[in-house]
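Let us practice reading a record.
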Amino acid sequence: MDIEFQNQSNSSSSLLSHVVLKRPLFLNGIKTCKVSSNLHVGTSGQSVGYSINKVVKASLGEHLERLSLFKSKLKPDDERAMYFDAFNILSGETIQVPTSDILLEYNLPFFKHYKNMDSLYSDTCGVAAHINSRDAMLSGFLEFVERQSLIHTWLTERIGTSVRLDTIKDEHLHKTIHHLKRFVNEIRLFNISISKHVYVILTLGFHDKYFSVGVSADPNLDKAINGSLNEFAMILEGSILAEKESMEEQPFHDSQLYSEIFYNLSVEDFRNKFKFLLQSPPMDREVESKEYTFNQLIHNVSEELKIPIYCTFIPSFIESGPEKIVKVFSPDGYPHMNTELFDPEDFKISNSLPYNGFPNKGVHIPFP
């Protein structure tokens, strides 16, 4: 049964204007929740999973995260308005980071004194929200490793290792893959991680008329696969809907640049962009999932990649709420996913990783 709630006031100040909870495509319990408001088109939150409780919480968390990035309540005279304090997660050393590297809406009052506004760019890489600081930082860190792996894989056309579906033993994962195969002719999973301490699973799927992708990171392989499949299912729904409607009728906001590029691709174009991964050798399933403390995990990855890893806390849109919103990043890592705007050789991380040139330098990643 589909459940839809709409705030009839349509007020521009409404925190929550639209909530949709449904099972539009996937049977036997897979659910989708999407929440949005009138405050900003880029603030919608969406999640897919088997538990109503979990998908609603995840959607609301992402929605609040985006609101805090697009509709920050920082005032022009606030001392934090120009810079955010960030700390090295391992050493505690602090640095100041320009607000323009963290927030996403440059029409906010405190940006009016910025010069060269056209050169500013940021996205949600490394951003996460949770009800406690530790889990928010862990989620942000895994998001950081995930996106750095995706960016480097794309720029270098570096192959990963292929996860054979017949080697997956978890029943829940088999159930999810079985449902997804009702909507795609082919589904492939790859480990594209730049770190031996974290799995980053990229899922690709193709149908005659639509396609999808999902990516997720975790030290536990099955958890990384599960997260990737859930994101794949969510993006697949958007791809199917986009195929049914003319893309010329889809109004995209500036904040939806990645989605606009992605959903305007043809199936053939999408497959060709990722064809280098299809040559990946099979992954050794005998490799066990990793178990680390939080500090061990950060230390191992930071040392492996030869870059410092920082975290900054972002003021929540709901000032009295318990949510903690963070961005985990490295000044030496890739700054965002808009690969058209930076030279990868300017960042130290590219020298810490194997590569044979950057064939996709200056080309957008086909990821929404």
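A brief commentary: The two ends are 28 Å apart (CA to CA).
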